[in-house]
Design a protein that fits this description.
Layout: H1 5-13, E1 14-17, E2 22-26, E3 29-32, H2 37-47, E4 57-60, H3 77-93, E5 97-98, H4 108-114, E6 123-126, E7 140-143, H5 146-155, E8 157-161, E9 164-171, H6 180-191, E10 199-204, H7 206-210, H8 213-221, E11 230-232, H9 237-243, H10 252-262, E12 275-280, E13 287-289, E14 297-299, H11 313-323, E15 338-341, H12 349-359, E16 370-373, H13 378-386, H14 389-396, E17 399-400, E18 421-424, E19 439-442, H15 445-454, H16 460-466
Parallel strand pairs: 3-4, 3-6, 4-5, 6-7, 9-10, 9-12, 10-11, 15-16, 15-18, 16-17, 18-19
Antiparallel strand pairs: 1-2, 2-8, 13-14
């Protein structure tokens, strides 16, 4: 029987099929951080259970960490408690922790791939919904809740119900300065935030094949925002080139066998998917979200839609009231307060290079209260500094920070004040996501950089042509 990539990885990890159509699935890699792990470790202690496989675990601090003045310690009491708990639990159970003093520290979904802990064919879980990021490397990756974190620590397994197969095929060539962030926002705008519910999405087509691995991660990262549990992309030569020589890859003794397996991680030709959608990359322009859901998105050259084009008028009006906007407002006319370039969606070296290309020789607008660049890891930060990107950003008026989740979510020192409007390269624009009553617009790194310079939204293609 022909199999999809999802079928292959699922079947390779299925230990037992239950009568209720659920299955017991083995988990290869467990990523943990300070937010969802303390309760799970407490549960182990209460039940007097040991960890099944410590070598499968990678721990880092990211959500609550300060991105500036780290030598002054962690001032927020809740953040401090969570981080100290992770430190104590890792020490107690002899788990390696990439903490603030470690060059390899960073956002969990950035450091997993860059260290080679994310590998094709793996099942990977983390107490964080954007674990879907790792599917760009042909791994079945998904977020889990705190009780499941405890379960994986204790048993290395999860009881799961298999999702349906959804294929999104993208062909054609993206226009210059249009990125994978624009592509995934466009897709979410088309299928909706519930379009992927009940599915695992595999992305195929020539456009996907042409993307770098870091760009593919951006798409898989935001697959969860389309309602799907996981996003997947097949193993190919680019996957291999990205992974080779990474720290935690199989040793030379086992590498050839691993590679032979990885090369099978592609959906069989002619396999049937439960659902299929096609998109043309040439249709996509720079995207900007205008509301409080990633599906509320349009081109930068367009206007906020009118109520007659919206199904739920009450939700639409509530959204515009929260965002402080009016129907048919031109996106380019929206003035901005803060700029955030970072998060597990867009904080890798490729993202910083894109932003720096736009920023070089320019200045942040006087209208902007704050513009910050937050690398996804210590290794990304070091690479950017070797390339001189930090100097480009700081000369333009950006703040250059230490790695962490930062202003992606209001869980650390970087957050919006009420009614501040922020351009963000992160993945969620929900009410209060970046701070109480904060207003968030999701864009690509290049679009965020242009917005910082202009003080309002502007088409990055036009800006670069004018430049």
């Amino acid at each position: 029987m022909k199999q999809t990539l999802y079928d292959k990885i699922w079947n390779d990890h299925c230990i037992l099929d239950n009568d209720d159509h659920s299955s017991l699935i083995y988990i290869d890699r467990h990523l943990i951080h300070e937010v969802t792990s303390p309760q799970a470790f407490d549960g182990l202690d209460i039940k007097k259970r040991d960890i099944w496989n410590k070598k499968s675990i990678m721990a880092t601090t990211d959500h609550n960490v300060p991105t500036i003045n780290r030598d002054q310690g962690i001032t927020d009491p809740v953040s401090k408690i969570q981080i100290e708990a992770l430190r104590e639990n890792c020490k107690k159970h002899n788990i390696e922790l990439y903490d603030l003093d470690n060059l390899k520290q960073g956002i969990v979904h950035v450091i997993g791939p860059e260290l080679g802990m994310t590998q094709p064919g793996m099942t990977i879980v983390c107490g964080d919904s954007h674990t879907s990021t790792h599917g760009a490397l042909a791994s079945l990756s998904f977020g889990i809740g705190t009780s499941d974190v405890e379960h994986v620590l204790a048993t290395q397994c999860l009881n799961l119900t298999k999702e349906k197969n959804f294929n999104i095929e993208v062909n054609g060539v993206l226009h210059p300065y249009i990125t994978s962030k624009d592509l995934i926002l466009y897709i979410i705008g088309s299928i909706g935030t519930s379009g992927g519910t009940g599915y695992t999405i595999e992305y195929t087509g020539e456009t996907i094949s042409d993307l770098s691995i870091e760009s593919r991660m951006t798409i898989c990262n935001m697959t969860i925002e389309a309602g799907a549990k996981s996003g997947l992309m097949a193993f190919d030569e680019k996957t291999h080139d990205y992974l080779k020589d990474r720290e935690f890859l199989p040793s030379s003794k086992h590498y050839d066998d691993a590679l032979k397996y990885w090369e099978t991680l592609i959906s069989d030709s002619g396999v049937t998917f439960d659902r299929k959608e096609k998109f043309n990359a040439s249709d996509i322009q720079p995207q900007v979200t205008w509301g409080t859901s990633p599906e509320m998105v349009t081109s930068v050259d367009e206007c906020i839609p009118s109520s007659d084009s919206i199904d739920n008028e009450e939700e639409y009006l509530d959204t515009l009231a929260y965002m402080g906007l009016e129907p048919k407002t031109e996106i380019k006319s929206i003035d901005l307060d803060k700029i955030f370039i970072g998060s597990c969606t867009n904080s890798r070296i490729e993202d910083l290079r894109q932003a720096a290309e736009v920023v070089e020789g320019e200045k942040v607008s006087s209208k902007i209260k704050q513009a910050i660049i937050v690398p996804g890891s210590g290794l990304v930060k070091a690479q950017a500094e070797r390339e001189g990107l930090d100097k480009i950003f700081m000369k333009a008026g950006f703040e250059w920070r230490d790695p962490g989740c930062s202003m992606c979510l209001g869980m650390n020192d970087d957050f919006l004040q009420p009614y501040e409007r922020c351009v963000s390269t992160s993945n969620r624009n929900f009410q209060g996501r970046q701070g109480d009553k904060g207003r968030t617009h999701l864009v690509s790194p290049g679009m965020a950089a242009v917005a910082a310079i202009k003080g309002h939204f502007y088409n990055v293609k036009d800006f670069m042509n004018e430049k």
